[in-house]
Design brief:
By secondary structure, the chain is an alpha/beta fold. The chain contains six helices and six strands, in the order αβαβαββαβαβα. Helix 2 runs parallel beside helix 6. The N terminus is likely disordered.
Length: about 210
């Protein structure tokens, strides 16, 4: 009788462990929510160094099960911001592609912004795009941000400050990672650099 009781107790213990293990597994799987990742590449050159890092980041995110999309600003018509002095109109009837990009930013969970460095700062294409967010900046809320910068030199500080100042005005924004590919020239030279793997791994761990 005593042996039967011991066996019954062991069976209950095994069943409990099994159930708890299944519960923990289900909980872990549920926590791995698929995110919408939007990568904004502002390089004026397709296949340029910052653009290639965008592709690696996106590849890593997709391998991890996230939904990813890259927007290449060079393919779009993005015009300068125009506003009235009293801010009653922040678009002034501009008919271009910027509102489509802003709409994608609003829908995304994760936003990656990438720029080559010119004259120690972000390129004009990216700055113009950031300015166009102004009309709907309150709607670009609770996003996770990653910044990618490449430079032939070493100075990325001004561009990084510009990115940080930009997300400062977006409610609930979080800076999650920075990728700096410095001392990289000419076009395509980044392919042989460790920063390619860094971009892939950062995307994979979004």
């Amino acid at each position: 009788m005593k042996r039967i009781l011991i066996l019954a107790t062991m069976a209950i213990a095994v069943l409990t462990v099994s159930c708890n293990g299944q519960s923990q597994k289900t909980s872990t799987e549920a926590s791995k929510k698929s995110k919408k990742v939007l990568v904004i590449s502002s390089s004026p050159s397709k296949g340029g160094n910052s653009d290639l890092l965008c592709d690696e980041f996106l590849k890593g995110a997709q391998v991890a099960g996230h939904k990813g999309e890259k927007v290449f600003l060079g393919d779009l018509d993005i015009r300068f911001l125009k506003i009235k002095d009293d801010y009653s109109d922040r678009n002034l009837g501009i008919n271009d592609d910027a509102p489509k990009v802003v709409a994608k930013m609003i829908e995304a969970d994760v936003i990656v912004m990438a720029t080559p460095i010119y004259n120690d700062n972000m390129c004009g294409q990216m700055k113009t795009m950031l300015d166009r967010v102004f009309e709907r900046e309150r709607e670009v809320s609770n996003k996770e941000f990653y910044f990618i910068m490449t430079a032939g030199g070493r100075n990325t500080e001004c561009a990084l400050l510009g990115f940080r100042n930009f997300i400062h005005y977006l409610p609930g924004s979080q800076e999650k990672g920075v990728i700096e590919g410095t001392g990289i020239y000419p076009k395509g030279a980044v392919k042989d650099k460790p920063v390619m793997k860094e971009a892939y791994e950062m995307g994979k761990n979004v």
